[in-house]
Design goal:
The chain has about 400 residues and is an alpha+beta fold. It contains 10 helices and 12 strands. The protein has a 5-stranded antiparallel sheet, sandwiched between helices. Strands 7-9-10-12-11 form a 5-stranded mixed sheet. Helix 8 runs antiparallel to helix 10.
Length: about 400
Amino acid sequence: MIRRLRIKFVCINMAIVVLMLCLILGTVLHFTQRNAERESIRMMQAAALAPRPPELPNAPAGRMRLPCFTVRQLPDGSLSASGSDFFDLTGQDTLAELYAKASASDALTGILPDHGLRYLRVGTPEGSCIVFADITNEQASQRGLLRSCLLIGGAGTAGFFVISVLLSFWAVIPVESAWKQQRQFVSDASHELKTPLTVILTNAELLHDHSAPQAAREQFVDNILVMSRQMRALIENLLDLARIDNGATRQTVGTVDLSHVTASALLPFEPVCFEKGLTLSERVEEGILIRGSEARLKQVVEIFLDNAQKYAAPQGEIAVTLKRSGKGHCLLSVANPGETLSPRQLRDIFKRFYRADEARSRDGSYGLGLSIAEAVVKQHRGRVWAESTNGVNTFFVSFPTLPRDETVSK
């Protein structure tokens, strides 16, 4: 698919480039030809209206050799040529042929390709006449310009083709990355669903064995319930991610007191931390207002708190801080002591289904919580990252804030 996308990208680019080059070079050729034609006709008109020089071929030697001449029909029916000795016009047959061809046309001006001449019928005070001008140089210039345009067009097309091929690799990087992530996501989701489904099917088959003791049968039912709840939690998380990615939560956006949201999110975790022997401390600055969804922002705080209490070292302290940071921003951080994370783990920890500790894969953690938090933060125009120093892992979230006099939505 990626290869086809690159080919399509190159084809579209080249179609646009070829069309633009044809339009530009064709326009240059057209207007150059029209300008040359206008200049030639202007010269022919000036030659027709100029005072008549001595007639050819009895003109004195040394006269200017202009590439045009005038032919008039005399009262006796003969033809007279005047204007320039650039042409050999001694024969009446040649003049008669040129005059007849030019007179037979309905147009006032035209070209005689067999002779390389342009003609113009002009009315003068002395009567009508036909001016002929040599266009061999003009045609040679047009052919040279055409060759130059073809060379420029060919070189430009080849150059743009190389550039398009190189750009195609760069342009599809996000698509290729998204495609790989999607395939990895499907693979990981299938793997996460396969294990509980296997347990459910196995225990359901064992329930059909009526010779099994009642206690064992009850254990089979409990196993099915546990795995079913885990599957439901996983599916709910997946649906939650899909809703966030599709922007389905944007209709609930309003002005939110993040200080109040953070404080209320802390309350359910106090007994949890107490049972685990952990200390939960907070430093929450009051009156921090942001634009967003209160439910989603509370979910972000809960995800970081849940992650902290799961991975905190025994008897450790979970520290929650919310404060203003710089102009127009606030900083939320959740820190807990634990195993130091490597730079690669800090980079990958927000990926879907990623778990730094694979041993916790069956404790209800699917590696989706931090992915959901990251998606919510980005939806609120924020930034999220993690740091690990001196045995303390800290998750940071930065949000743009609103002025303090904003009315808080309830």
